[in-house]
Specification:
heterodimer, A: 50 residues, 1 helix, 54% helix, rod-shaped, B: 633 residues, mainly alpha, three-stranded antiparallel sheet, 24 helices, 6 strands, 70% helix
């Protein structure tokens, strides 16, 4: 196996392995947020806490 | 609008949908076709167009499918016709484009379950020791042809050799397993199965990989056939040309061998491309050799030199002990030309770019309609950007890091460069004729062979399973059928199709024809529709709003330009080149072969059936929308 062969194999295999590892770590670390219930942004309740 | 009374199916977990999409993408091509291509174009050069195609074609189209699917799902549709109709309401033909989103997965399922049955059969035969056919490759070839019924149409149903020697039994098992899981539904069937099948697949692949990488030099009399050279055979960055190619290191050795062994006056007879004599070995400058090539005058002497240096002749070319490839041709002037193609020049080979794009495209399962259907079951704010990237990277990992390290190196170690090279051109040849012989020769081969074919079976069933869901979705939401009725209708249609493919098994002609017209032509067409619709109908800005909603990662904005301009052009060029190079023979075959004609007619009938279903679904959806408007004006 030539030096070029080693380099290309390690780069290719390393790239896809690191990419998968990074993706999975992101997916595992960020649990899917529950469906959000947004308030209507335009509504002013005029509640000033008084 | 889908039936609002029916509880909508949904994925249980985010990892579940990622594994289901990855399972759909990972198939036999990851373990058999990719390594064959990498070896054919000698890894190094091939990986450049491969990753370029991933960036410009595979990933963008995957993001397109995920976002269109989720957008359609949020409008209440899970079938491709329903999704396209909801995304392009002004075009009355939009749902009919979605007919391809039914034909493609269902059509592919019809023959894929047949191949899946081969894998299951081989796994069981290895487990029971029935695959021990000796060390003659012909025995494995004969067995494969007999097992799959390639000798005559209807041969699969000939049980004179024992029912357990026919693929028919395994087809029935695979067919039943697929429909059992699809009947259980999205989360209890597909997701549940993929959640254990995909990790099991990776474990199986790692077992086989460890076995291959620890083989060392199994035959002491052939020290060159070792693991490192096997990997080099796949990954070394030199390429073959139509003429002759050898790596920088091989060319001087070649000339030295030629000079030393045969030529009485080598210094005068070895010439550079400019006709001037080249300095004698060992001082031949590899750079000079790579710039213009060398000419040698006597082909017979040259070939004898190759034999003397143990280069193996496989009828097509010569293979060095280290796996370099050399094709000896005889040009008009009668001289053998030894031409080295540099890494840079190799990248100008259009066929390699075409093959790399095709491999990425089919490997990621983009253009099938499956991803769109799967993502339609996501919630409005579920992430799709990272999920799509994770599914793609899972597929690439299986392909490059596992597939690229197992099959071809194993074949090289036991069969040498010639044996591996001869098998690399055909996935079926490599998988079902060559590798069984390799496992026979390998220590612990019976166990490893069983694990390998079980791995292929898992890869196949997670793919075939996904192919049924788009049609089930239409039957349920378009016609209002229950799960049992939908499964029954689809079961009948696919049983007819699979029966057709299995019966017309001579030379696998029906399989090959349907694979061409549906599994290739149909996919390219559907993918083109999808990417044009996203970039030009929905609009790339609006499409990216959909992609960004709930996204865990920010997709680079350059992807807007790529999706709108680069991917469609890239796809259309690849599609046009593929039609130019391959379609002629298949069109001609329709006129010449009645089975080919019948296969094409069968595809058209199935397409007609789906069009009728879509027409009925559209009528039903329109009525429901009208009724909804009347209730709430």
């Amino acid at each position: 196996m030539t030096t070029g062969g080693w380099i290309i194999m390690l780069l290719s295999v390393g790239f896809v392995t690191l990419l998968l590892g990074w993706c999975i770590s992101r997916v595992v670390r960020e649990p899917q947020a529950p469906e959000k219930l947004h308030a209507h942004p335009g509504i002013d309740t005029r509640d000033r806490g008084t | 609008m889908a039936d609002s009374k029916r509880p909508r199916e949904a994925w249980n977990t985010r990892m579940g949908v990622i594994l289901a999409v990855t399972g759909s993408a990972v198939g036999l091509g990851n373990f058999l076709r990719f390594p064959g291509l990498a070896a054919k174009y000698e890894g190094g050069a091939f990986m450049i167009p491969y990753f370029v195609a991933l960036l410009l074609l595979g990933l963008p189209i995957a993001w397109v499918e995920w976002s269109m699917g989720r957008a359609g799902g949020n409008r209440g549709f899970n079938s491709i016709p329903g999704i396209l109709r909801s995304l392009w309401p002004k075009n009355r033909l939009a749902p009919y484009f979605g007919g391809l989103g039914l034909l493609v997965p269902v059509g592919i399922y019809m023959y894929y379950v047949y191949i899946e049955a081969w894998c299951l059969g081989y796994a069981i035969y290895f487990a029971t020791g029935m695959m021990d056919k000796g060390t003659d490759k012909k025995a494995y070839t004969d067995f494969f042809e007999q097992f799959t019924g390639q000798n005559a149409h209807g041969d699969v149903f000939n049980f004179t050799n024992g029912w357990y020697n026919s693929v028919a039994l395994f087809v029935i098992i695979c067919f039943a397993a697929n429909f059992f899981l699809i009947y259980r539904g999205l989360s209890k069937g597909i997701e549940w199965f993929c959640r254990w099948a995909m990790p099991a697949l990776v474990v199986c692949a790692l077992i086989v990989l460890i076995r291959v990488l620890t083989l060392g030099t199994p035959d002491a009399s052939k020290p060159e056939q070792n693991v490192v050279n096997g990997l080099g055979y796949t990954w070394n960055p030199s390429v073959q040309s139509d003429w002759v190619a050898a790596s920088d290191q091989e060319i001087p050795k070649l000339i030295i061998a030629y000079d030393d062994a045969l030529l009485p006056a080598p210094r005068e007879r070895v010439k550079g491309a400019d006709g001037k004599p080249v300095e004698p070995p060992p001082s031949i400058d590899p750079v000079l050799a790579t710039q213009g090539g060398l000419q040698v005058e006597n082909k017979d002497a040259f070939v004898r030199a190759l034999h003397l240096n143990k280069w193996q002749d496989d009828g097509d070319g010569f293979w060095s002990k280290r796996g370099s490839k050399l094709r000896v041709g005889l040009p008009d002037d009668g001289k053998v030309r030894v031409e080295h193609i540099s890494f840079g020049r190799a990248l100008l080979n259009p066929k390699m770019w075409l093959d790399a794009a095709g491999q990425i495209f089919f490997s990621l399962s983009v253009g099938f309609g499956v991803i769109m259907c799967y993502s339609s079951y996501l919630k409005k704010d579920d992430d799709i950007a990272l999920s799509s990237l994770t599914a793609c990277s899972g597929n690439q990992f299986c392909e490059v890091a596992l597939g690229g390290m197992i099959t071809i190196p194993a074949a090289f170690i036991f069969l040498g460069a010639a044996g591996a090279g001869a098998a690399a051109g055909s996935s079926f040849d490599l998988g079902f004729k060559t590798l069984p012989l390799v496992f026979k020769t390998m220590p612990l081969g019976q166990f490893v062979g069983c694990v390998f074919f079980f791995l292929l079976f898992l890869a196949a069933i997670t793919s075939s399973l996904s192919m049924l869901q788009p049609a089930i979705a239409l039957l349920e939401e378009g016609l209002g059928l229950g799960r049992k009725s939908s499964v029954t209708v689809l079961g009948f249609v696919t049983l007819m199709g699979t029966g057709f493919v299995v019966f017309f098994s001579k030379g696998l002609v029906a399989l090959d024809t349907i694979d061409f017209w549906i599994g290739t032509f149909g996919i390219y067409t559907l993918a083109t529709i999808q990417v044009l619709m996203f970039g030009w109908v929905i609009g790339v800005d609006k499409g990216f709003e959909e992609l960004d909603r709930g996204a865990s990662i920010r997709i680079p904005r350059i992807m807007k330009f790529i999706i709108k301009y680069v991917s469609p052009v890239y796809l259309l060029i690849v599609f046009a080149c593929w039609i130019y190079s391959a379609a002629g023979d298949y069109v001609q075959a329709i006129a010449n072969d009645r089975v080919v004609l019948a296969s094409v007619v069968f595809c058209l009938v199935v397409m007609g059936f789906f069009m009728l279903l879509i027409a009925q679904s559209v009528r039903r959806w329109s009525r429901a929308e009208l009724a909804a408007k009347e209730v709430s004006p």
